[in-house]
Every structure is written in structure tokens, then in C-alpha cells.
Amino acid sequence: MRFTPFEYLLVTLITFGSLASCSNILVLVPFPAPSHWLWLEHFVQELLHRGHKVMAITNFAAKEDHPNYTEVLIDPPYDIPYYFPVTDIFEAKYNNDLSNLFLYWNVGLSTTKYALENPNVQQFIEQDDSDFDLIISEQFFQEAFLMFAHKYRAPIVTIGTLGYSDFMDRAMGLLTPWSFVPHPVLSYTTEMTFAQRCYNLLLSLADAVIRKYYYMPRQDMLAKTSFATIEGPESFPSVYELEKSISVMLINSHVSTSPARPSITGLVNVAGAHIQSAKPLPTDIQRFLDGASEGAIFFSLGSYVKSSDMPKDKLKAFFEVFRNVKQKVLWKFEDETMINVPKNVMVRKWLPQSDILAHPNVVLFITHGGMFGSQEGIYRGVPMLFIPFYGDQHRNALKAELSGYALTLNFADVNSITLGSRINELLTNPAYSRLAKKASELFRDNLVPPMEEAMYWIEYVIRHKGAKHLKSVSVDLNWLQYLMLDVFAFFAFVFLLTAYVAYKIISAFLEKPTKLKSKEHKKLTSSSKTKNSKKAKEN
Ligand SMILES: *[C@@H]1O[C@H](CO)[C@@H](O)[C@H](O)[C@H]1NC(C)=O
């Protein structure tokens, strides 16, 4: 029997499809921010689509049922604004670098503890005896959850929501070179001045030390307390060890938007994995945008920072500027009952951002500069105005501004004049739109579509039951060994020792020969004298 190429392909697909289809995957997303789940949900959907069975620990109930999907709901979900008030954000409380880091750590510890103590999660830890082929954890300040990998003796893949951090490099066996890789909270470019490199070293070092001695022991403690019921605490690995056992990290980063940095096979860039071809818009929005003959501005501060919580004077500035532009404005605003909305402005409490940005009439995107929004703006080739608040937003803004398709305005500086002039510049200077299109072309040009690449690595780790070989053995070297400081110290010692011994020997030689020579000289001179005197006598 002979197969046509098409039949051959079909048979191959079915064989491999069925091989890969029966995996059980546990997905851990205890962090309660909607934007994180929105991104990770795309991976869950794709896994289900490929026939895997997925169980997720999450704060968000599924929008629709799927026979192969089950969830352990963290219910009631963690109330972020209660623990971390949005007013702090508007007051720029997290503008200082160290406080920015502590914000991450404290949010991480607080949300992890909350999730682990949730009765549904506790019950799942104590009673569940299912088998998982893979643990997928969000790579985000929730290291205690890695203990599930120990419970099920399963390999781990993590999906990073933010871009790279030094500790991800360390877990994969790399030390981040601080000479040209700025710390993630710093708004530095890779070309740092001497002073910037000094500061980068201090902050990166502080991060490493505080993480190791303050943050990670607390995560470890949370893990050991929560899993204490399943076995004696002495047999647990530390979460630090578990972190080093992660097989692959899928990172939300792209070579065209983040500067090149040293990497290793187990670190895989998957930025843009969530972006799909645009879906049809709701009719009212479609009509609004279709009718924007002068173009439309899309304004959203994301899911956490709510426009409706903005101080009154800032709100007034936005209204004033929007009232005076020719463009239509689509604004994600949480209070739809607001009065005195200008005629050219439409407010909605929820808007399909990525699909709106794909509408050809959208000429400007005003954003807080979160990772996903920035990437969607880049992907759709829309010029942006960044109003950054915290976390990685300042850095995203700086990167976009340097690439020439965006401008930045700090929230504290927002008034009708600054806002008006920035918007005017972005709308009238064609360079922004041209460079946005160019950035889009680069962002879309991938060897493999990022979601496909993510699935390849996830299934690879399942197939091979872990993939230790994707990281270097240097995970087990300490930093003295890694930087070869021990070897340098050894050679310095050998060199100094040799130099010292050589000095001693030479100086010993230098002393004796002089004594010898002077004696010989005396002998010689005396003998020549006697010779001379003999000669004289003879004469
Ligand atoms: C559910 O998973 C099984 C394999 O475990 C697969 O055969 C089936 O097609 C999946 N169902 C759906 C709706 O994807």
C-alpha cells in the first residue's frame, strides 16, 4: 500500500496528535490580577485545544465549560485594591526603586499566602491524589506553589508574565551581566554611563541579597506550612531547589522590543503569544470607529488602575483635551453613567483592546504602558502615548519612546497643555506612525509563531519527563566559582608567591656575588701589584 503525501501527513498528525493528547497538566495562577490571567488563559485554551486535560488553580472562573478543564477556585478572590490601594498608585508611592521591588515581594507573599490558605486550595493539597505529567506555574512571585511539583513528582515549566529578571537567569544557570543589562525596574538603556553602572550594581546586588535572605525564606516557609499535612517537613526540598529544577521558562519578551542579552536554551521568548487575528467588534463600537473619518484615539489605563478613580483635576484635563480634538475618542472608563461626556467621546467599562487597536481608523493609543497593552499596540502598529505608573511601565515607556513610535507623559505632569501638545505631536508628525509600522513588522517576524513555540516546549518537557539538559550545570556553582574569582585568587596567590620566592633568590644572589667579586678584585689587584713589583725589580 502506498500513501500519497497528504495521507502520510494525516497519519503522522494523528499518530503524534494522539501521543501528545493524553497529558494531565496542572496550571498554577494564584496571582489575582486580571491581566495576568487574561494572558495565561490563552495558553490554557491552546492546551485544551490540543487535547490535554488541564486543571487550574485560579482566581477566575472559566467563561464557559470544557469537558477537559477543571478548576480549583480561589474563592473569594484576593481583593487587590483593599490590600494595595489604587490611590497609592496615583500618588506615585512606588516611584522609588527599592520600594518598587518591595512592592513585588510583598504583593507576592501576601497573595501566595492568601491563595494557599484558601479552603479549596487546602483541600486540594490534602486530598487530591491525581497524577500530573506537568506543572505549569506562572513565573511571578509565587515560588511556594512550586511545591506542587514535589507533591506530584512532576517536571515544571513556568510562564513569565513580565520580561526577564536576574533571578530567572540564575535559576537557569546564568549570571546576568550587570555591565550592560540594566535591572528590570531601572529606566536605563543598555548603554549605561559609569554612574549608572555603579547604581545598577548596587540595586541588582541589593535585589539578589534581599531576595535570597528575606523573600525566598518566607516563600519556603509558606510552602512548608501549607504542605505540612502531606509529609513531614524534613523531607521537603526548599523552594530555592525547586526553582533550580524548572525545565523551561517561557518569557514574555521579544528580541525586537528588549535589547539582546545572554541566554540559554531553557529560556524561551514567547511575547505576543496571546495576540490573535482580530475578531469582529461589538456593533456599537464598530459603528463608532467606522464613523471616525478623522481617526480615533483609544484610551485605557488597563484593568487595575481605574480611570474612574483618577483625581478630579486630572479627569478635567483629559475631558478638556478630548473635547478639542477632531478625532473620536474611545475611553475605557469604569463608570458608564458619567455625565457631561463630550460628543466625540465614547466610554465603556470594558473594551476588547487588541481588536480595537486593529481597526484601521485607530491612530493613537493612550496607555499606562503595561506589558500586554504595549505589545498589542506594537503588534497593530499604532503610535502610543504612555502614562506610566509602576512596575515595568516606566521601562516599557522609555523603550517605546527611544524606538520613536511613542511619547511619555508622567501622570503627575498631566494637564490640558502637556496632554494636548503630546497628543497633537503624535497625531501630526507622520514619523510616529511610520516607526510604529516598522516596529510592528519586526514584532511579527518570527521563525515560529510564539504560541506554537510555547506549545512545542511544553510538550517537549512532557515527552521527556523534564529537561535538565536545557540549562547549564552552573546552577550549582556559587558566584565565586561562576565568576572564577576562586581561580583568579589562586593564580594571584601563585603569582605573588612566585614573585616573592624569585625576589628572595635573586636578592640572595645579588648579595653574595658582590662580596665574592670584591675579594677577588683585592686578590687580583694584590697579585698584579706583586707581579708589577717583580717586573720592576727585574728591570
Ligand atoms: C478531552 O481529552 C481527551 C483525551 O484525554 C480527548 O480525546 C478529547 O477529544 C478531549 N475533548 C475535547 C472536547 O477536547
Describe this structure in words.
The protein is of the alpha/beta class. The chain has helices spanning 5-20, 34-49, 80-83, 86-90, 97-117, 119-127, 147-152, 166-171, 194-226, 239-244, 283-290, 312-323, 353-357, 371-380, 393-403, 416-428, 430-444, 450-463, 479-482, 485-538; strands spanning 24-29, 53-58, 69-73, 134-139, 156-160, 248-251, 267-269, 296-300, 328-332, 345-348, 362-367, 384-386, 406-408. The chain has three domains: 22-273 and 449-479, Rossmann fold, CATH 3.40.50; 283-444, Rossmann fold, CATH 3.40.50.2000; 484-523. The strands form two sheets. Strands 3-2-1-4-5-6-7 form a seven-stranded parallel β-sheet. It has a six-stranded parallel β-sheet with strand order 10-9-8-11-12-13, with helices on both faces. α12 runs parallel beside α16 (416-428). The longest helix has 54 residues, at 485-538. It is globular. The termini are far apart. 37% of the residues are buried. 2-acetamido-2-deoxy-beta-D-glucopyranose is lined by residues 21-22, 51, 53, 67-68.
Radius of gyration in whole Å, from Cα? 33 Å
Q: How far apart lie the N and C ends?
A: 128 Å
Protein structure class: alpha/beta
Low-confidence stretches: none
Q: Give me the number of helical elements.
A: 20
Average pLDDT, to the nearest integer?
89
Spatial order of strands in the largest sheet: 3-2-1-4-5-6-7
The coarse silhouette is globular
Q: CATH superfamily of the largest domain, called what?
A: Glycogen Phosphorylase B
